[in-house]
C-alpha cells in the first residue's frame, strides 16, 4: 500500500471529491447572490425615490437666480439637470405620500447673491423646512405673493438676508409654523462705555412690521419667534399686547425682539404664555415696569432686557425660578430692586447681570456660593459696603461688573484669585484708592474698565504685563503723573484706550518705530483733557483709528496734513476746546461720520465733508462763510451746528438738499436775507431749527405741511415781520417756540394752544396787540396751554385784562408732572445725540440766556404792555412759578394776598403800575424770593418784616410805605389796612361826619386814611384799648 500522504502530495485530490467541492461553492455563491438581491430590494424601498421633474426644474430656476461670488460658501455644483435633485446640496425629499417632493431646502450661510427671491421657490409646495439665512437679496422685498402656497412649512429662516420693506401678511397664513426667524443680527461697536454704537451686518431696520398682529395672529403653533432689528416702532400698545398673549401664541417658548425700536411698556399679557422660556427685548426703548407676573412663568430661563428705559422695582420672585439660567437688566438706570439674601439657592444660574441700574441694598455674601456663575454684574446705589469677599471664590467667572455709589472701599486683593476673568468693570461706583498690583495676575483679562470712580495715584506698571488686553477705560478718575503713549504699545492686541478727564499729562514717549509696529489695529483713542500741547505723532502709525478724541487740550496751530492722510478708517473726530486755527485740508475725508471742531479758532470757509458725515459741529469758531454748493455734503447730514461764528451773506439755497436733516443751528452769526422756504415747507425731518441773533428779514414761511417734526424753533433777535403762521399747528411735537425781538404783529396766538407739547412760548419785543387769551373767556375749550412752563409776552402792545379763567388753564404751572428728562432737550433714539434747548428771558432783573432749560423753570413775563385791571387772584394757584414779572403796565388795585401761596417764587416784579393798598403779610412766607421789585406804585403802610424785603430799591416811588429798610419810620398808629367789613364801615362813618361838619375835605381824607390804618391795626394788636389810640392822635 502506498502512503496516503505520499498519494496526496503526488497526485492531488480525487476527482469525485473535487466535483463535490465545486458544487458546494456554486450553491453557496447562489445563496449569497440571493441575499444581496434581497438586501438591495429592501434598501431601495427605504430610500426616497428620485425627485419629481417639476421639483428639479423649480430648483434649477432658483439656482439660476443666484450669483456665486468669491465669498459664496456653497457652489451648488451638484445641482445639475438629469441628476436626482433629492441628492443635491441642501435638498431633502419626503417619503411615503410626499415621495419625490422637496421637503427641506437649506441654503443657510451660503453667501449667495440675488436681485430678488425667485418665484420658482413657491412651486416646492411640500416644503417643511426652508433656510435662506445669510444670503444677499440686495434689499429686495419679501414677495407678497407666494408664501401662502407653502402651507406645510414648519421652519422658516430668512434672517440676515438683506430683505427690505414691509413683511408680507402672507407669512401670517403659514399656520403650521413652529419657528420663524426674520431677524438681522447686530453687534456693538465698543467705542467706549459712554458711546456705545449698535451696528448690523446689513443696514438696520430694512424690514418693517407696522402691524405685528397681522403676522402672528394665526400662528397658534409657533414656538420660536426671532425678529431682531425689524422696525416695530409703529405698533401701538394694543397691537403689541394683542400679538403676544395666551390666545394668540399659546405655545410660544422663545420671543426675541432685540433692537426693534419698541417704545411701549412690556405687556402683562406675556405672562399668560406659560410656555415662555426665553424673553429677549434688549436694546429697545421700552419703558415702564417689568410685570410682577413674570415671576410666575414656570419655564423662564433667559430674561434679557438690557439697554432699555425700564423703571419701577424688579420682581424679586423671578430670582426664585429654578429654571433661571440668565437674567440681564443692565443699563436700565431707573430700575430699582435688590438681590435676595438666599440667591445662592439657584445652582444653574450662569448670568446674573443687574449692574448699571438703580439696585440698592447690600450685595449678599451668598452670591459667592453660586458656583455656576460665569458672568456677574451687580449694583448698589445707596448702601455703603465693601465688596463681599465670597465673590473671590467664583473661580469660573468670565466677567465681573460692579457699579453704584454704594460700593465703596479699595479694589480688593482677592481680585487676583479670579484668573479666568476676561472682563473686569468697576465703573460709576464709590471705589477709591490706587489700582493694586494684584491686577497683573489676571493674565486672561481682555477688557479693563475702571472709569467714573475715585481711583487715584499712578497707573501701575503691572497693567502693561496683561498682554491680552484689548480695551482699557480709565476715564473720569484722579490718576496723576506723566504717561507715555508708547507704554501701551507693549499690548499687541490693544483696540481701545480712554484716559480722558484725569490729572494725567500724556506725551508721545519713545519714537522708536520698531516698538510701534504692533499698533496697527488700534481703533479707539480718547485723550480728552490730558494736558496735551502737540498733536500726537503716534497717530502717524495708527492707520486703523476710527474714534479719535483730543478735546479739552491745548493743541494749537494747523492740523497736520499727515493726520488726514494716514487714517483711512477715521469716522469720529473730536477736537472740541483746543486752539486750532487751520483745518489743513479743504475737504475732510469722505468716511468721517461725526466731526466736532467747536470751540477753536478756525477761520475761513466751513470745510466740505463727505456724503457719510451726519454730524458736523463748527460752532464757536471764526468761520466766515458756508460753501455755496452744499449739495455734495448734505445728502447724509443730520446735524449741522455752526452757531457763534462770523458767517455772513444769505443762507445758500443748496441747503435744501439736506432732505434728512434733523438739527440746523446757525444762530449768533451775521446771516441776512430770507429763510429758504424749503426748510420749513418741504423738509419734514427737521426737528430743531435755530436762527437766533442774525439779520434775517421778511415774512416767515406760511405753508408748513402736515408731518412737520419740529420740536424747537428759535427765530429770535432777527428782523422778521408779518404774522406768525398758523400752519405751525402742523408741528405737533413743538416744545419750544421763540420768536422774541422781531417785528411780528397780530393778535395773541390762541391757536398755538393746539400744540399739545408746547412748553416754552416767547413772543417778547414784537408788535402783538389785543387781549391775552380773550377767547378763553368766551369758550371753554380754547386757548388752553396745558403744558406751558415759560410764557414771555413782554414789550408788546397787549391790552385788556388778564382773565382768571385763562390763567386757570395753565395746568403745568399748577402741578408737577412726570417727565422723562429734567432738561429740555432733543435726543434722537437712533443716534443717541442730545441737543439742549435754550432761551433768553428776563429773570431776577436781568436778561438771562438759559443754555439749559430745566423743566422746573416756570416763568410768566407780561411786562411792558398796556394791561389794566387788577392782578387776578388765580395767579396764586400757579404754585410752581419761579418768576413773575408784570411790571410796566397799568394794573390797579391791591396786591392779592394769594401770591403768598407761590412758595417756589424766586423773582417778583410788579413795579411801574398803579397798585395800591398794603403789601400783603403773606408775601413774607415766600422764603425763596431773592428779587422783589414793587417800585413806582401807590403802595402804603408798613413793609412786612422779612429778609426778602430788605432791599431799599424795591420800594422807590411808593411814598406811603414806611418801616425797614426805608428811612421813613412808621408812627405808632401806622398799621396795615384791614379788610374787616365793620372796620371799613367805621371809616366811612368818620368820613361822613367830617364832611357833614363842613371841615375841609382834604383834611378829612388825611384823618380818614390815618384812622383807617390805625383802626386796621387794632385787629392785629389788641393789647391797647381803642380809646388810647384815639388819644394818641
From TrEMBL:
Keyword Signal: yes
Compartment(s) of residence: Cell membrane
All copies of domain Leucine-rich repeat-containing N-terminal plant-type, residue ranges: 53-93
Transmembrane region(s): 989-1013
Lipid bilayer topology: Single-pass type I membrane protein
One GO CC term, this protein: plasma membrane
Keyword Lipid metabolism set for record: no
InterPro entries: Leu-rich_rpt, Leu-rich_rpt_typical-subtyp, LRR_dom_sf, LRR_N_plant-typ, LRR_R13L4/SHOC2-like, RLP23-like
Signal peptide: 1-28
Residue stretches making up the Disease resistance R13L4/SHOC-2-like LRR domain: 366-549
Any GO BP annotation: brassinosteroid mediated signaling pathway
SUPFAM superfamilies linked: RNI-like
Protein keywords: ATP-binding, Brassinosteroid signaling pathway, Cell membrane, Glycoprotein, Kinase, Leucine-rich repeat, Membrane, Nucleotide-binding, Repeat, Serine/threonine-protein kinase, Signal, Transferase, Transmembrane, Transmembrane helix
EC assignment: 2.7.11.1
Reactions catalysed: L-threonyl-[protein] + ATP = O-phospho-L-threonyl-[protein] + ADP + H(+); L-seryl-[protein] + ATP = O-phospho-L-seryl-[protein] + ADP + H(+)
One MF annotation (Gene Ontology) recorded for this entry: ATP binding
Protein family membership: Belongs to the RLP family.
Protein name: non-specific serine/threonine protein kinase
Upper taxonomic lineage: Eukaryota, Viridiplantae, Streptophyta, Embryophyta, Tracheophyta
Amino acid at each position: 500500500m502506498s502512503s496516503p500522504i505520499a498519494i496526496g502530495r503526488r497526485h492531488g485530490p480525487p476527482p469525485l471529491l473535487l466535483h463535490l467541492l465545486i458544487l458546494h461553492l456554486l450553491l453557496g455563491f447562489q445563496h449569497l447572490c440571493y441575499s444581496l438581491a434581497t438586501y438591495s430590494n429592501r434598501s431601495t424601498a427605504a430610500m426616497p425615490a428620485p425627485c419629481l421633474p417639476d421639483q428639479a426644474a423649480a430648483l434649477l430656476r432658483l439656482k439660476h437666480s443666484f450669483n456665486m461670488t468669491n465669498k459664496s460658501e456653497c457652489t451648488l455644483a451638484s445641482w445639475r439637470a438629469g441628476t436626482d435633485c433629492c441628492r443635491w446640496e441642501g435638498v431633502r425629499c419626503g417619503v411615503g405620500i410626499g415621495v419625490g417632493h422637496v421637503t427641506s431646502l437649506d441654503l443657510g450661510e451660503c453667501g449667495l447673491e440675488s436681485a430678488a427671491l425667485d418665484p420658482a421657490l413657491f412651486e416646492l409646495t411640500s416644503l417643511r423646512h426652508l433656510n435662506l439665512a445669510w444670503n444677499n437679496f440686495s434689499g429686495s422685498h419679501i414677495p407678497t405673493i407666494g408664501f401662502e402656497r407653502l402651507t406645510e412649512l414648519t421652519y422658516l429662516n430668512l434672517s440676515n438676508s438683506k430683505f427690505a420693506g414691509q413683511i408680507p401678511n402672507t407669512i401670517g397664513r403659514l399656520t403650521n409654523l413652529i419657528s420663524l426667524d426674520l431677524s438681522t443680527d447686530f453687534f456693538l461697536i465698543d467705542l467706549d462705555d459712554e458711546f456705545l454704537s449698535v451696528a448690523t451686518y446689513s443696514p438696520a431696520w430694512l424690514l418693517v412690521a407696522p402691524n405685528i398682529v397681522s403676522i402672528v395672529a394665526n400662528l397658534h403653533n409657533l414656538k420660536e419667534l426671532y425678529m431682531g432689528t425689524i422696525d416695530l416702532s409703529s405698533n401701538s400698545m394694543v397691537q403689541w399686547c394683542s400679538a403676544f398673549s395666551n390666545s394668540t401664541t399659546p405655545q410660544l417658548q422663545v420671543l426675541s425682539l432685540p433692537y426693534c425700536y419698541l417704545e411701549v411698556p412690556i405687556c402683562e399679557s406675556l405672562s399668560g404664555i406659560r410656555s415662555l422660556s426665553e424673553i429677549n427685548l434688549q436694546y429697545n426703548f421700552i419703558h415702564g415696569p417689568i410685570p410682577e407676573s413674570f415671576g410666575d412663568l414656570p419655564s423662564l430661563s433667559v430674561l434679557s432686557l438690557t439697554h432699555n428705559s425700564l423703571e419701577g422695582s424688579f420682581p424679586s420672585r423671578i430670582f426664585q425660578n429654578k429654571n433661571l439660567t440668565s437674567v440681564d437688566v443692565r443699563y436700565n438706570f431707573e430700575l430699582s430692586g435688590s438681590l435676595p439674601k438666599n440667591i445662592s439657592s439657584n445652582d444653574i444660574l450662569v448670568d446674573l447681570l443687574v449692574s448699571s441700574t438703580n439696585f440698592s441694598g447690600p450685595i449678599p455674601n451668598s452670591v459667592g456660593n453660586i458656583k455656576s456663575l460665569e458672568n456677574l454684574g451687580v449694583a448698589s446705589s445707596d448702601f455703603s459696603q465693601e465688596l463681599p469677599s465670597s465673590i473671590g471664590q467664583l473661580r469660573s467667572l468670565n466677567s465681573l461688573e460692579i457699579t453704584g455709589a454704594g460700593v465703596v472701599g479699595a479694589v480688593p486683593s482677592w481680585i487676583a484669585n479670579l484668573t479666568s476673568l476676561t472682563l473686569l468693570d468697576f465703573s460709576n461706583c464709590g471705589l477709591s484708592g490706587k489700582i493694586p498690583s494684584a491686577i497683573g495676575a489676571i493674565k486672561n483679562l481682555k477688557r479693563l474698565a475702571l472709569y467714573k470712580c475715585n481711583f487715584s495715584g499712578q497707573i501701575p506698571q503691572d497693567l502693561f504685563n496683561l498682554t491680552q488686553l484689548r480695551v482699557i477705560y480709565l476715564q473720569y478718575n484722579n490718576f496723576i503723573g506723566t504717561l507715555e503713549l508708547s507704554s501701551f504699545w507693549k499690548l499687541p492686541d490693544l483696540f481701545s484706550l480712554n484716559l480722558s478727564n484725569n490729572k494725567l499729562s500724556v506725551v508721545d514717549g519713545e519714537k522708536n518705530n520698531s516698538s510701534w509696529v504692533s499698533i496697527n489695529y488700534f481703533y479707539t483713542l480718547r485723550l480728552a483733557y490730558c494736558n496735551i500741547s502737540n498733536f500726537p505723532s503716534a497717530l502717524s502709525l495708527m492707520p486703523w483709528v476710527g474714534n479719535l478724541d483730543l478735546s479739552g487740550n491745548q493743541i494749537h496751530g494747523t492740523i497736520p496734513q499727515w493726520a488726514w492722510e494716514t487714517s483711512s478708517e477715521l469716522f469720529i473726530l473730536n477736537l472740541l476746546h483746543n486752539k486750532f486755527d487751520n483745518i489743513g485740508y479743504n475737504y475732510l475725508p469722505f468716511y468721517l461720520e461725526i466731526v466736532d471742531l467747536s470751540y477753536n479758532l478756525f477761520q475761513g470757509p466751513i470745510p466740505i465733508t463727505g456724503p457719510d458725515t451726519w454730524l458736523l459741529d463748527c460752532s464757536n469758531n471764526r468761520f466766515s462763510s458756508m460753501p455755496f454748493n452744499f449739495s455734495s455734503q448734505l445728502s447724509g447730514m443730520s446735524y449741522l451746528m455752526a452757531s457763534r461764528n462770523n458767517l455772513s451773506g444769505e443762507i445758500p439755497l443748496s441747503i435744501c438738499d439736506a432732505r434728512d436733516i434733523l438739527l440746523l443751528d446757525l444762530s449768533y452769526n451775521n446771516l441776512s436775507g430770507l429763510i429758504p422756504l424749503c426748510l420749513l415747507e418741504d423738509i419734514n425731518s427737521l426737528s430743531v431749527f435755530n436762527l437766533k441773533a442774525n439779520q434775517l428779514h421778511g415774512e416767515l414761511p406760511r405753508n408748513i405741511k402736515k408731518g412737520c417734526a419740529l420740536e424747537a424753533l428759535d427765530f429770535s433777535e432777527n428782523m422778521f415781520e408779518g404774522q406768525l403762521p398758523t400752519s405751525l399747528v402742523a408741528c405737533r411735537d413743538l416744545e419750544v417756540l421763540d420768536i422774541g425781538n422781531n417785528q411780528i404783529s397780530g393778535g395773541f396766538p390762541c391757536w398755538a394752544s393746539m400744540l399739545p407739547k408746547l412748553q416754552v412760548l416767547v413772543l417778547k419785543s414784537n408788535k402783538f396787540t389785543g387781549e391775552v387769551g380773550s377767547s378763553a373767556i368766551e369758550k371753554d375749550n380754547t386757548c388752553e396751554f396745558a403744558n406751558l412752563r415759560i410764557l414771555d409776552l413782554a414789550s408788546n402792545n397787549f391790552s385788556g385784562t388778564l382773565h382768571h379763567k385763562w390763567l386757570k388753564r395753565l395746568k403745568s404751572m399748577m402741578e408737577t408732572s412726570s417727565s422723562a428728562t429734567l432738561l429740555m432737550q432733543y435726543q434722537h433714539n437712533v443716534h443717541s445725540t442730545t441737543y439742549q434747548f435754550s432761551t433768553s428771558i428776563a429773570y431776577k432783573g436781568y436778561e438771562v440766556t438759559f443754555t439749559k432749560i430745566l423743566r422746573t423753570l416756570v416763568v410768566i413775563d407780561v411786562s411792558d404792555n398796556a394791561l389794566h385791571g387788577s392782578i387776578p387772584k388765580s395767579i396764586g394757584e400757579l404754585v410752581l412759578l419761579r418768576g413773575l414779572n408784570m411790571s410796566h403796565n397799568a394794573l390797579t388795585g391791591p396786591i392779592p394776598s394769594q401770591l403768598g401761596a407761590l412758595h417756589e417764587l424766586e423773582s417778583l416784579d410788579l413795579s411801574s403800575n398803579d397798585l395800591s393798598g398794603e403789601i400783603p403779610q403773606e408775601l413774607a412766607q415766600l422764603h425763596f424770593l431773592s428779587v422783589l421789585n414793587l417800585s413806582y406804585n401807590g403802595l402804603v403802610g408798613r413793609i412786612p418784616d422779612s429778609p426778602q424785603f430788605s432791599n431799599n430799591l424795591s420800594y422807590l416811588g411808593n411814598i406811603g410805605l414806611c418801616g425797614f429798610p426805608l428811612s421813613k419810620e412808621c408812627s405808632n398808629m401806622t398799621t396795615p389796612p384791614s379788610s374787616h367789613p365793620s372796620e371799613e364801615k367805621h371809616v366811612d362813618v368818620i368820613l361822613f361826619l367830617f364832611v357833614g361838619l363842613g371841615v375841609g375835605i382834604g383834611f378829612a381824607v388825611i384823618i380818614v386814611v390815618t384812622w383807617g390804618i390805625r383802626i386796621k391795626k387794632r385787629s392785629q394788636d389788641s393789647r391797647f384799648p381803642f380809646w388810647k389810640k384815639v388819644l394818641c392822635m
